[in-house]
Every structure is written in structure tokens, then in C-alpha cells.
Amino acid sequence: MTEIGNRSTRSRSGTRKGVKVERIYTKPGVHPYDEVTWEQRDVVQQNWKTGETIFEQRGVEFPDFWSVNASTIVTTKYFRGAVGTEVREKSLKELIDRVVLTYVKGGKDHGYFATDEDAQIFEHELTYSLLHQVFSFNSPVWFNVGTKSPQQVSACFILAVEDSMDSILNWYKEEGKIFQGGSGAGLNLSRIRSSKELLSSGGTASGPVSFMRGADASAGTIKSGGATRRAAKMVVLDVDHPDIEEFIETKAREEDKIRALRDAGFDMDLGGRDIVSVQYQNANNSVRVNAEFMRAVEEGTKFGLKARLDGSVIEEVDARELFHKMAQAAWECADPGIQYDDIINDWHTNPETGRITASNPCSEYMSLDNSSCNLASLNLLKFLRDDDTFDAATFQKVTELVITAMDISISFADFPTEKIAETTRNYRQLGIGYANLGALLMATGHGYDSEGGRALAAAITSLLTGAAYKRSAELAAVVGPYAGYARNAEAHKRVMRKHQAANDTLKTVGVMDADIHQAATKAWDVVVKLGEKNGYRNAQASLLAPTGTIGFMMDCDTTGIEPDFSLVKFKKLVGGGSMQIVNLTIPRALKKLGYQQESIEAIVEYIAHKGHVIDAPGLKPEHYEIFDTAMGARAIAPMGHVRMMAATQPFLSGAISKTVNLPESATVEEIEDVYFQGWKLGLKALAIYRDSCKVGQPLSDGGSTAKEAQAAKDAGEVKVEKVIEYRPVRRRLPKRRTSQTTSFAVGGGEGYLTAGKYDDGNLGEIFLKFGKQGSTLAGVMDAFSIAVSIGLQYGVPLETFVEKFTNLRFEPAGLTDDPDIRMATSIMDYVFRRLALDHLDFDSRSFMGIHTAAERARQLDTGSYEPDGADDSHEDIEDELESLQQSAPVSKKPELKAEKPADHAAEVKFGAGAASAKQASAEVHSSAELMEKFMGISADAPICMTCGTKMRPAGSCYVCEGCGATSGCS
To answer: For the TSCPD domain, which residue ranges apply (predicted)?
Structure first.
């Protein structure tokens, strides 16, 4: 098919057609590079386990406002040329020029610009936006554009395989080429005959699952020597395929095998040497369900599995039972995910060309077989003004600028296969999206799982896609619509009207989302009218990618559509060293909510110490939801993630890369509900991950046992291990023991706490008297006291009880009569805070944020906590107590200063309200590990194979914030 966009762009009168490019950020006669301060940096990366230097480039040049993380990732991943040679790029200027000037030349060569001045404005605006981290192209652009390598710009690919051996072998070959280039691909295997059908020769077919083994082995081999360490791929099978049950159970059965091998002493950790013997580990699996199946699940009826050749039903299964098996397998190993076929194809702009049958590895790109998509993402925080209003007009202009650049890239791009090149040039699929949504919501005082948060996200997404298609229609007038538009015109226009209708029904909640929605409404009006006249340049325009590496390049706090990962971040410093700091979005959010500077500082200091906002001084409970995070003490509920996806999905051409995280305690039925609600809410695809469902954990030492066993075997020794069984022993209290009784009142309810001690002073029993003798409440308190007492006597640390029972919320709650604990959220909260103050050392309870009134008073005067009795006299303490009780709220806060690592002399500056930055422990190397330190729970993420840093979630993949490596998504 001939590419229409290559035609001449001169009108009959001889005047040149082309788009007019408007200035957004730049000034005539001033280059963007001249407006920033540049500095020299040294980028040195070491493996934190071995100390080995794995990368070193000194004297690289970056703007002074770029973080160390961002400059490190760009230097190590995107600078081209051999390290240590003259041809190696050493400045961000060189990188941006290499890409931008190639785009400008492509635009000129293919007639995109009305005048040479428009081309220059385009160059300057694109340069400014990249320089100031307003947006970023996907990684292949930075890898390849402007180099001698093929001009590969796409990160997402969809392949096709037919029911023939030639096609299957070609699948292996094409997939290998894509993996070799560092990208990922997806495909649907449903055309391949099942193992329950016959071949033309009379034999039985192998079935798609058997061919998955060969593809998995190929991916596992290529990933070791290719551009990435893990070959990213997606395998999809339709729910009516006769081999669907075998497909569903493949990875769950392999997980059982991993457990058995691990228990036998083999190294089955992530990256372990024996894990390669397990199959199907290099792909994400998804089941493609249709509305017929989901209705059968809803109604509890039978569902037919169909032969591939003639479509006849060869077996009937119980739909609910099959659906339960999907959820069971996902509960065990996180696979398979689910894709909703009817919803996907209902929003398909090119049905006359073919159905959408598959997706890329992360499920955000869904389009025709043998196609590709290049991506770019906007940094939403860059459009939030100082007065906390969203600059919708600039957001729309930047979207139009970036879409123009993305479409230009297809005109000069190279592709891994001829089929992909033909489809992409004829349909010109683009994938513009955004990052930092979680940070934007927090900064503007919106909870992620709230009506206001979802309304704002939906309005922004609607404006994004509306602006993208508006420019696409304008480009169609200049360089023509995409080649496949004519045969799909009615369908494409129908989908545009569906987007517009979804925008019209969007319910706004606040002034901010109402203003954005108004701009989106105007944009969609233009889209529909211009499309009728000109058609569209692009079959697809938008999606939400994980933005892992490019998110760090733009110094985003959050990736893609994700909420904030944690409130405290791990930050590298220029010159070496690292620190933990509270997100600077938090002070901005607190100011937006109306808190005064003194309160902001106190809350931020509390977050720096605790890692969460629960019981932060002066913070209203109704504001807690604004600071909810992906993991931690106030983790967002699974359906909170699903509802956010549902709010934005109607405004996207493609889908959303996101995994719904569930706690380890989640049930199979809860996973069924998430999958079912995803269908009800109109999602295109969904994946889940239950904490700790994978055997291979990132920080275990499972390999040592295998190594020792092998060494003994090689030496001809039979190692006999002595099995020691450990059991807890109860340490009973002496007959006569010291005890202390405390009377207390919580929220008007009065009670008594008696604590008995061992001779060494350790707590051994408690008795709680609350309520009338013989009442149900009194009986429950007696039983609870006995249970806690027996636990203490069997060696359960008091700290454990304190951690579990403080912050419990139930009535009675409120003011107490205890000067050390002025407020309590429940009786249990008060009792265990009192026990901590009476029986734990200062360091233990300080870590949990439990201090006496005297210690808090000293903190106000000195800026640091000290244990009781350190220096002050009894009279001083009483004076401090009296002044503390007379001054509520607190009116004096210490001056907060950032500590400096010994090897770093440069001053560290933070925004207003930032807590004291603390030098990070040498044992902490990423935000994921920092969260583990704070929360005491495992961030179930793999170790980066490049630099050894703990990775963090990004969409349905993981990304390393140390070097930018990903687990599969570009």
C-alpha cells in the first residue's frame, strides 16, 4: 500500500502547505540552551554488592536543575559512542540535538512545516520541552535516532502467527529480531490448532502451549546477550480455545516445580543459575475473554470451546469453574492476566482491516497484527502553576507539538520486519501519554482513590487525546490521512464520537477538573468537525505506558498512571553519597490544604521519621487519603486502582499499563472480583500481582544451600545435618512480683491498667479493667489480657504488641487524662502507648514515634529528642510540661537543616517545608529498600541485573532508579 503522506505538499497555486507552529515557551532569537546554567558531573556506577565499577564517564554536562538520578540514567543508557573515545557523547546538548535535528529534517523533507520559520520554532520548542523535562520520547528514540544504527523509534510491537509450521518458525525469528534490538512483542496463539484436534496427516496437533516452550527458550537465550537482560513478551490465548485450561495452568505448575527444586537445594531465586531450567518464565500470559464468556460467568452457565478450523464446539465447560481456575492461577503466580475482547474491538478504529487480537508485553498498545507504536509521555507536574492551577492551554499546545514530532518520526523510521513497516506506515499508530499523575493529584489535594482524583485524571486524559486527534486531523489536511483511513473512515469517525460522548458524560467535581473538561470539550468538537473534512493522520493517538526509565529521566515522582510509591524517597547526591528525603510534593499539598508553615514542618518531620501520615501531628484524618501510596501503612485498595483505570480508559485509543497489587492475604475470590469488575467497568485489560506469590524472592540466599550440597557431592561426601527443633518455652512469673496500676480515661471512658514484671524488670503480664464486672466488655478485656500475658511469657517482644495495637481506631477515642498521651484513637492505642513508655527503652519507642511530654518539649527547644533524665532537672521537666499543656497547637518549631554526608561538601537545598534530610544507610540503595526499612514489609521486586539495586514497580514491569534498566518495558 502506498504511503499517502509522501505526496507533494504544494497547492495548485504553488504556495507551500504545512502546519503553523506556535511558540509556547521560547523567545525569538534566544536558544533554549542559553537560558539555563550548565554544570560538569562525574557519573560513576558501582555494583553495591561487589564494589566493582560497572560504568564511568567523567565530565558530562547537564543543567544544574537535573537530578543526579536523571543525569546518571541518561549518561549510561542514552549517550552513544564507545566510552573513553572522542566520539562518545558527553553533554545533554549533544543528545537532544541528535534527536531534535533529525526530527526537524524529517519534517522538512516530508512537507510538515508551512515555512522555514515554523521549522525553527518547532526545533526550539521541542528542544526546550526536552531540556526542561516537560516530556520525553520512549527509549528507542534516544537509543537510535540520529545514529548510524537503524532509525528504530517504536517500543511496542504486535506479531501474528498462523496455523502452519512455517508461520510458527517465522514467529521465533521475528520475535528474536525484536528482542535483539531491546524491545518487546506480543501475539495471539489462538489460530494454532489445539492438542485436541487432528492434523491433515491424521496425527494429533501439538497445540499452542507446546510451541510456547520453544519461544520461551529462544527468549531466554537471546536476553542473555541482547540489549536487555529480559526479553519482554506477551502471549495471548482466546478463552474459547480448547487448550485454554492447559494455558492457564502453565506458569502455576512451573511455580510448583520451582518450589520443589528450591526445597531440594537448587538456586531458584530471581537470577539464580537453576531458574533457567524452568519453562514459560520469559512471557506475560493473558486470556482474551469475550462478552459471551463473561455473561456465562455471571449467569453460571456452560461455555463452548471451539475447534480452530471450523469453529465447531468440541467441548463444553462450566464458565465459573474456568474463571475460578484463571483467578487461582493468578493467585499462585500472577499469571494469566485478562483482556476483554469485545471492549477492545468496540473502540477499534480499523475493523475493516482486521480485528485487534493481541497487545504489546505491558498491554497498553493494542492494534492490528504486525504493527508497532512509538510512545512519548508528558510530565503532568510541569503544567501545574505556582498558584496550583492546571495550565490546560499549554498542556494542549505541548500535546499537539509532541504528536507532530511523533508522526514525523514514522516517515523516516526503520522497522524490524517488512510486514511491521508496511502496517505502521499505513496506519501510523502513536501512543502519547503522561507520567506523574500520582504526584499531581497529591499536590492538588486529591486522593488517588477519590471521586475528585478520578474526575481530574479523566479530564486530563480526555484533553490529551482530544488535542492529539485535533492535531492528527490538521496534519491530515497537510500531508494526508493514513493510508488505511479510506476503508475505515466510518468506523474511525464512530470511535471519535464515542470519545466525545464519554467526554460529554464526564462528571466534574471541582473547579480544576471543570476548567480542563471545558478545554477538552472544545477540542473534541474540533476533532469531529475537522475529521469529517480532512480525515485523520493516525489510526491511534494515545495510551498510558509505564514510563519507567523516561519517568526517571524527567525526574517524575510517580510513573504513568500509578500513585506515589512512597512518601519518603531515596535520593543520590552530586559528588557521591545518598540521602532520604520526604517528597517535596507533600509540603505543596499541605499548603494547598490550608495548613500553616509550622504545621507543615511538623507533619513533614513526622513523615520523615515514620514513613506515613497516620497520627501525624495536626493532620486531619479526612486528609489522610491524599497521601495514600502504592504500598505501606495506607496502601490503596485494589479496587482503587481499578476505578482509576476505569475513569481514564474511555479517553484512550489504546489501554493502560498497570498491575493491580493485592496483599499476600488476598483470596482467589478477591481476584475473581477484580477481574469481573474490570469487565463491568469497561477496561480493556487487567493484570494482578499478589505480594509474595512468586517463589524467587529478591534478597534471599537460596543459592548457598545448593552450592554447599554440590560441593559435598563433588568431594564424595555425604553431609548429614543435625536437625534441631526449636520450640518456644514459657517463662512463668514468680509467685510474688512487682506490679504497677495506672488509672486512665479515654474519650470519657475510665479504666485501669495493671502491669506485672519479672525480677529483671521486664514486662510479664497485664490486666485491663474496663467496663462493669460481668459485662461482655469486661469479659473480652479479661480474655485479651490473658492472651497478651501468655504471649509475653512465651517471648513475644513487647515491641511487636505495640506495633500491632497502636493506631487501632474504635470508640471510645479522643482526649485522655494522661499528660504523656494527650490523644488516643482507642483504648488499645492508649494502653500500648502507655506500656511502651513504661517498659521500652528510648530508642525502641522513638522509632515508633512514642515519646513522653518532656521529650517532646525538649524537641521543641533543641530540635532533637532526648531520653528522659538525660540532662534536665525535675523542675525543668515540670516547667516544660506546663508550657506544653498551655500551648496547643505548638507555635514553635526548630530550624530544619539538611545533614551532609562526610564526603559531600556541597550544600543540599530543599523546598519549603521539607523535613530534615537524613544520610541514607549504606544498606539502603533505592526507594524500594527504603520502604522496606520503614514499613518492615518486603517490596516484592527483583534486583537489577545491571547494577544490583532493588527495582521498583512501574506499570506491569519494574524499573531500576539507579541505572534506569527495566524488566521488560522501554
So the answer is: 727-837
- Position 47 scores a pLDDT of 72
Q: What is the 3-state secondary structure (H, E, C) of 836-893?
A: HHHHCCHHHHHHCCCCCHHHHHHHHHHCCCCCCCCCCCHHHHHHHHHHHHHCCCCCCC
Cα–Cα nearest to 324, from 290, 297, 302: 297
CB 406 within 8 A of CB 374: yes
pLDDT at position 845 is: 82
- Chunked into runs of 10 residues, the chain (970 residues) has average pLDDT values of 40 63 96 97 80 89 94 94 95 98 97 96 98 96 93 94 93 85 86 89 84 76 47 90 95 80 73 69 90 98 95 96 97 94 98 97 96 97 96 98 98 95 98 97 97 98 98 97 98 98 96 97 98 98 94 92 88 65 89 94 91 94 95 90 98 95 91 97 94 56 39 46 58 88 89 91 90 81 91 90 87 88 90 93 81 79 55 42 41 36 37 52 72 64 70 78 70
Chain CA centroid to CA 589, Å: 21
Cα(951)–Cα(565) distance, rounded to whole angstroms? 12
In angstroms, rounded to a whole number, what is the distance separating the alpha carbons of residues 558 and 544?
A: 13
pLDDT at res. 3? 38
Alpha carbon of residue 181 to chain centroid: 24
Q: Which residues fall within 8 angstroms of residue 743, CB to CB, at 6 or more apart?
A: 750, 751, 752
| CB-CB contact of 365 with 359 (8 Å) | yes
Q: Is 907 a catalytic residue?
A: no
Query: What backbone torsions phi and psi does residue 565 show, to the nearest 5 degrees?
Result: -70, -45
- What is the distance between the alpha carbons of residues 37 and 485, in angstroms, rounded to a whole number? 47
Strand-strand pairing, 302-306 and 38-46: unpaired
The length of the chain, given as a count of residues: 970
- Tell me the one-letter amino acid at 612: H
Q: What is the pLDDT of residue 914?
A: 43
Active site residue 360: yes
Q: Which of 188, 350, 360, 534 is catalytic?
A: 360
Cα→Cα distances 821→574, 772, 827, 830, 866, Å: 42, 25, 12, 7, 17
Share the mean pLDDT of the chain. 85
pTM tops 0.70, yes or no: yes
- DSSP of 549-618, one letter per residue? HHHHHTT-SS-TT---S-SEEEEE-TTS-EEEEE-THHHHHHHHTT--HHHHHHHHHHHHHHSS-TT-TT
Cβ-contact 530, 474 below 8 angstroms: yes
488 in catalytic set: no
Rounded to an integer, what distance in angstroms lies between the CA atom of residue 904 and that of residue 813? 47
Q: Which residue in the list 156, 333, 362, 963 is annotated as catalytic?
A: 362
DSSP code for 156: E
At position 102, the amino acid (one-letter code) is T
* Residue 182: CB atoms within 10 Å: 19
The answer, yes or no, to whether the previous bond of 336 is cis (omega within 30 of 0) is yes
pLDDT for res 355? 97
Phi and psi torsions of 710, nearest 5°: -65, -40
Residue-level pLDDT at 321: 98
The three cell numbers of residue 331 are: 493467585
**459 touches 580 (CB < 8 A):** no
Q: 267: closest CA among 637, 669, 679, 706?
A: 706
Alpha-carbon gap, residue 137 to 104, rounded angstroms? 15
Q: Where are the beta strands (DSSP E) in 142-257?
A: 156-158, 184-188, 233-238
| 79 and 95 Cβ atoms separated by less than 8 Å | yes
Residue of 158, 357, 324, 352 whose CA lies nearest to 241: 357
**Residues 852, 857, 860, 864: what is their CA dihedral angle, to the nearest 10 degrees?**
-50
130-162: b or e for each residue (b if 16 or more CB lie within 10 Å)? bbbbbbbbbbbbbbbbbbeeebbbbbbbbbbbe
User: Amino acid identity, residue 836?
Assistant: A
